[in-house]
Design a protein that fits this description.
It is built from ten helices and eleven strands. It has 287 residues and is α+β, with helices and mostly antiparallel strands. The structure holds adenosine-5'-triphosphate and L-homoserine (HSE). Adenosine-5'-triphosphate is lined by residues 10, 27, 44, 47, 53-55, 73, 75, 79-87, 89, 123, 164-165, 243-244. Catalyzes the ATP-dependent phosphorylation of L-homoserine to L-homoserine phosphate.
Length: 287
């Protein structure tokens, strides 16, 4: 039995901590069988291989008396790169507990648990539901709404360097003025309306007009402005900092992908570029 959990790309510009999209890169957790201790074989470098692994910790937070298992974990989601690897691990752990503990959790219950563990729903909600999701905390619980899937290729520029979410949050201001907060939220509201209206010309402009986080983080990820400018000339509808970065995501019309990629290379950017898709389905089990 295997669980497949998609990656995710959060924020989409002004939807800071609120909007995210499931992405076609996967964390796979194979259940080999019961064991006398938790054992996690993985291809993820020096991450923990026992009970202290994030997947196991998430599973035990849901059901502390789960029987220990031998798991095999593989992932094509780069760690600490703004593609939601920690959320995929948390959601994978919740799915594991749900299945092994026969809990039959509803999607909204999984979102509640996962968002409490992660702190915000922008990565975990699309990782659970698939496609594009807008969510928030309200009246002490998390809520999430699925939006139409944008009909674009997601072209990710993945810098070689890592950027921990905690470091990328440390550069954000503690406060915004009332006037700035009103303007930032007006941009985000209109971006969401444009996404639901499937008016991608308007959505693209608004996705590039974030006032919550990108202007503070762009000094950590100087490639953002370069790729955004390339995108304006070469077929990108919008370019944004994926999650806390450093991955930069561009929504590109499929007809313009090779032109866009060539132009990014001509701008002197040499790190990995991957063509990804929106994953329409959230985490699921396979025999
Ligand atoms: N499969 C996994 N198993 C165990 N721990 C993991 C796994 N995937 C990620 N992690 C943990 O999550 C950390 C990365 O989380 P972080 O929030 O910094 O970045 P991210 O989730 O990849 O990006 P972002 O939140 O910006 O989209 C890793 O350093 C590791 O500690
Ligand atoms: N919304 C989060 C995503 C990463 O957890 C951020 O940008 O910090």
């Amino acid at each position: 039995m295997k669980i497949k959990v998609p990656a995710s790309s959060a924020n989409l510009g002004p939807g800071f901590d609120s909007i995210g999209v499931a992405i076609s890169l996967y964390l796979t957790i194979e259940v080999i069988g019961e064991s006398d201790h938790w054992q996690v074989d993985h291809n993820l470098g020096d991450l923990p291989s026992g009970k202290d692994n994030m997947i196991v910790q998430a599973a035990l937070s849901v059901k502390p008396d789960l029987t220990p298992q031998h798991l095999r974990v593989e992932s094509d989601i780069p760690l600490a790169h703004g593609l939601g690897s920690s959320s995929s691990a948390i959601v994978g752990g919740i799915e594991l507990a749900d299945q092994l503990g026969q809990l039959n959790l509803a999607p909204h219950e999984k979102i509640e648990i996962a968002a409490q563990l992660e702190g915000h729903p922008d990565n975990v909600a699309p990782t659970i539901l698939g496609s594009l999701v807008v969510g928030c905390k309200v009246n002490g619980h998390f809520t999430a709404v699925k939006a139409p899937v944008p009909p674009f290729a997601m072209i990710a520029y993945i810098p070689a360097y890592n950027l921990k979410t905690s470091d990328a949050r440390a550069v954000l201001p503690k406060q915004l003025s009332f006037k700035e907060a009103v303007q930032a939220s007006a941009v985000a509201n209109t971006a969401v309306a444009a996404l639901f209206a499937q008016d991608y010309e308007k959505a693209g402009e608004l996705m590039e007009a974030d006032l919550f986080h990108e202007r503070y983080r762009s000094k950590l990820v100087p490639e953002l402005e370069i790729i955004r400018n390339v995108g304006h000339e070469h077929g990108a509808v919008a370019t944004y900092l994926s999650g806390a970065g450093p991955t930069i995501m561009s929504l590109v019309d499929p007809q313009h992908i090779s032109d866009f990629v060539d132009a990014v290379r001509e701008a002197g950017l040499k790190d990995e570029i991957r063509r990804l898709e929106v994953a329409p389905r959230g985490a699921f089990w396979q025999k």
